[in-house]
Input
Amino acid sequence: MFQKMIKFLRDRLLLLRHASKCQNPNCLFIECEFAKNLWNHILECRVTACKYPLCITSREILSHYRDCGFMKCELCGQVKEMIDIENNSEVYAANVLMSIRDNDIVQL
Output
């Protein structure tokens, strides 16, 4: 039961991450539009007992994610690790592109 709840909450965290990053108005991810609406709501909501679907629990998950420093946390550790890998691969890709561009300039 506990592991199912952790997976459910982790999936919500990943859903919110997707919503915060996705700029594709025609995204094929089934829950994208709902997630974007939820994300935009959360950014503005300050209501303690908000009735917007998933608002309170999502804010709690995001608060935990922001404050958690335990890299092996069952809820957010894997998500933080995935984001680190993603960020490092983006930096790597940017460095490769710069290197290619710089080499092309030198060869001209």
About this structure: The chain has one domain: 2-107.
